[in-house]
Amino acid sequence: MATIIWPGNNQWPLAQRITFRFIFAYFILYMAPWQWVYLFPGTEKILAFFDMLENGVVQMANKYLFHGYKTLVSPNGSGDTSYNFTQVWLYLLLAAIACAAWSLFDRKRNQYNRLAYWLRVLVRYFIIINCFRYGIIKLFALQMPFPNQSQLATPLGDLLPMRLSWMFMGYSVKYQFFSGAMEVLAGVLLLFRRTSTFGTLLAAGVFCNVMMMNLSYDIPVKLFSIHLFLMCVLLLAFEYKRILYLLLNKPLTAGNLFQVSFPKKWMRITRVVLKCAFVLVVAVLPFTESQKRYRQVSNPPEIKPIRPGMYDVAVFVRGRDTMPPLITDTLRWQNVVFEKGGGGSVKTSDTIFRQWYKRGYFVYSTDTLQQEMIFKKRTVEGGTWNIFRLKYELPDSNTIVLKGLIRNDSVFAVLKKSNRHFQLAERQFHWLSEYNR
Hints:
By secondary structure, the protein is of the alpha+beta class.
């Protein structure tokens, strides 16, 4: 009966065996390959079970082991919450315990070539998943959209570093496309055993840049980007001699880390079928979905009859008081932006709106029969709820008159279309530059 020859040395040093045990346990816990069923539709119930189980364990660890936080905040767009940090500390602790027990009961084993092979495969495919996951949406400029008028109207000094970096990336479709293309290319190269080393080197460079941006601009995906980079380093560590010889211009042998011949036909067929299904789920379907989403985002519907754009608030009366346009007045509306697609913002500190970078954000729709504008507040979960309704009048194409009740106070506002021009919105590019801009 043919046996499988697993690549690697027949004798591992003790330090290497102990290190491998810890790394294997930790990265298996972090990657959680049993949860990769999320890639396939209809697996929500299975994922809900795993999430409930993991959440219970992390909560108990925080309460009885680490005593770190009174309450854990779950991931909510931020991947660096107290829950995430507790989770990482728990994985490190469990990996250390597993390593100690494993070293005690399996101390006579000389090598872990088979386990090392499967660990490399899992890490490699985890990196591929995230290369396609983030790369494809960048190809369509969906991860970092071009700054809208509300963001352009926000003073630079009011932006947090994370939002500044997001707008920097979103400004240039070409640069964002290039970043996504490099991620997708790394994923494609990693798919094939012959080009996996090249793909790992490219992925390491890409994710090192992502990691440094997250660390430098306080982007709350630090833990995840660090792990992606470390996974690339882990794969490269298995080939450190070949890479060193390449850099020193010395002759090197062909890599064989993924060159495993499966003796049975059903094994070879299964591998091909699984890889085809994997490519379909992580690359082809996300590409078509992103393409569909791009068409929707690039042509958002206008909320008629309101003309999108920025409006200065010429008159603002609340109750019986006409409020002058003082910059120091935080409740008066200074200007209003209506975006295409039903989003918008107002320069005010009124907490009836969702406050973000010293502007109040809202979602709006119109009832043309009643001639009303319905203002809504977007929740953290992504839903909306109505906050007030105002009657509207359109005396001319550049004026909107709003009146109604906000918090049981009567409101009357006259909005005039602004001629404010933002140079950043021009997407300027010059080959010839006679002076420094």
